[in-house]
Amino acid sequence: MEFTDSTTTRTAKVVVVIQQKGGAGKSTIAVNTAACAGRSAPMPADDETGAPVVAAGIDVQGTLERWCAGVREQALPFDYVVTKSKTGILPSIIEDPSRRRIIVDTPGFLDVDPDADWGADPLGQSRTADAMREVLEVADLAIVPITPSSMTWSECEFTIERVLKPRSIPYLVVINMHDPAKDKSERQLSKVKAWVDERNYPRVSEPIRRYSIHEHAFENGTLVTEYKMSGTALNAREDFMRVALTMEQML
Ligand SMILES: Nc1ncnc2c1ncn2[C@@H]1O[C@H](COP(=O)(O)OP(=O)(O)OP(=O)(O)O)[C@@H](O)[C@H]1O
Ligand SMILES: [Mg+2]
């Protein structure tokens, strides 16, 4: 068995979905990647043992909790926990030997310290910042969403250069919301791919496409693994399966 740190015997790997900019798809990616990972890791037969995959949310709003609470119990292939930025909850889950993957949804962090020195922690002082630091301390991998619209690019760079690199956390960029109907020639998509590649940021080979089916997943309590099978649903599932697979390759 492989351990990330010789000082602990933990079996769980922690993957944090992080991007300074709000709305790039962190929660959507965290929940659906957990669903894909959970589908390939059988749930324990008894109620005492925890599921191998855990989706965790640290935002104060508890987005993940509201989403997962709406999913039929038999359809949920992972456990979920919401810390609402309380520290001390995640470390005990991570030490639980029945856990293999903890996928953490984080809030956008807008209150960064603009005066922080280059290389200094820009997360600032707040309850959320403390919760972020706690997760980052144990993270084995970060997934950073970026969109074809350049609105998220500088925040992607900031997240990688100022938050992840100084902590030596491996990261993976994933392009989200490529619109196959509006960007038929893939001009926008090529631009964002080139931007990521110029910086030598590792990325998931193909984007997560924009489908309206995802927009209602939160209020409907659906996971990509549960979508009724149609052409779009198959594509949608393939996109998140690819993210889960690439994540596994990096762990
Ligand atoms: N691939 C996609 N196709 C269509 N809609 C998407 C896709 N990804 C995300 N969305 C939608 O975009 C909105 C923002 O996504 P999401 O809530 O996952 O972002 P976030 O980064 O978690 O935002 P926040 O920083 O506010 O927590 C949501 O309404 C979601 O349903
Ligand atoms: Mg979110």
TrEMBL record:
- What SUPFAM superfamilies is this protein classified in? P-loop containing nucleoside triphosphate hydrolases
Q: Which domain of life is it from?
A: Bacteria
Instruction: List the InterPro entries.
Output: DNA_Partitioning_ATPase, P-loop_NTPase
Protein name (record)? Chromosome partitioning protein
Instruction: Give the organism, scientific name.
Output: Streptomyces zhaozhouensis
